[in-house]
Amino acid sequence: MTQPMPPDLVSDDISPQRNPSPQCAKDRLIVALDVRTQDEARALVNELDTRVSFFKVGYQLFLATGMPFVRELVNRGKEVFLDLKMDDVEETISLAVRVITEENVRFLTIHGNSATARAAGYGRGAATYPKILSVTLLTSLDRQDLIDLGLLGTKGRFSTLDEYVSWRAEQALTSGCDGLISSGTSVAMLREKFGAKPIIVCPGIRQRSDATDDHKRAATPREAIAAGADYVVVGRPIRNAADRRAKTDAIIEEIEIGMRER
Fold first, then answer.
1. What is the DSSP letter of 37?
2. What is the pLDDT of residue 11?
3. Catalytic residue chosen out of the listed positions 78, 85, 131, 193
4. Which residues make Cβ contacts (< 8 Å) with residue 149, sequence separation at least 6?
5. What is the DSSP letter of 219?
6. Is 85 a catalytic residue?
7. pLDDT value, residue 15
8. What b/e readout covers 22-32, taking b as 16+ CB neighbours within 10 angstroms?
9. What is the pLDDT of residue 155?
10. Host H or E run for residue 30
């Protein structure tokens, strides 16, 4: 990318200025629409309509339906988290984010280095949204995975998993990202180091009675919110529940408890 980054998009300021977290517990829940078709996704949104205001669209649904369904959600007054974990050359990232900026999407994920974050900020320009969130470490990975990747252990650069997560977070925030995607198990550490300013969204959220599936670093809604998370993402436990509304209500109740414990 030949254009210089605007100075207001890249900052070393990660001081504790509070980000605007939702005051209502139900607005902190993001339901992942990890289904195969638009009809399935629409049915789930309709079923949870009065309970959930925020939905995540990831690879599966986006590849099946593209932006038209995202626009449908936005037109219904829903908040949209577009979880594409973008990582590519700077020009591609910048141009793609510029397109997404026109769609009234609330959150967008990237999964690259500092250059990726700066390019995303450049593509967004002076627009307020989407807020750009960087993945620190997938919740499907744990300490042993980082050892296997050569990042931890006797020859690794980092001593602990949280040290790696902290490094990734600082890299993202100082390069202009608005927030982080993090396991609930790392939220307290991130808040202690970076304060209240970054938006923190936690996937891999499970109640005690739920199977953790492929999430090696799962956390409960209560744990993640009490530790300082702004939002929690829940997919399979709600999607596969016998009573989706009751499951959603139970998760929101846990979020309320976590908010009181902060």
1. S
2. 42
3. 85
4. none
5. B
6. yes
7. 42
8. beebbbbbbbb
9. 85
10. strand 29-32
What token pair was written down for 192?
């202690």
Q: What parts of the chain have a pLDDT lower than 50?
A: 1-16
Per-residue pLDDT tens digits for 153-203? 888 999 999 999 999 999 999 999 999 999 999 999 999 999 999 999 999
Distance CA 45, CA 73 (A): 9
Q: Are strands 231-234 and 199-202 parallel, antiparallel or unpaired?
A: parallel
Q: Which residue has the tokens 């005690």?
A: 208
Q: Is 52 helix (H, G, I), strand (E, B) or coil?
A: coil
Q: Smallest Cα–Cα separation from 109: which of 89, 136, 141? A: 136
- Could you give all domains of the chain from N- to C-terminal order, each with its CATH number? 19-261 (3.20.20.70)
Query: How crowded is residue 72: how many other Cβ atoms within 10 Å of its Cβ?
Result: 16
CB 116 within 8 A of CB 135: no
d(CA 92, CA 79): 25
Q: How far apart are CA 169 and CA 248, in angstroms?
A: 30
Q: What is the pLDDT of residue 239?
A: 97
Which tokens is 245 given?
């509304």
What local confidence, expressed as pLDDT, does residue 154 receive? Answer: 87
Please give the Cα distance from 114 to 172 (Å, whole number). Answer: 6
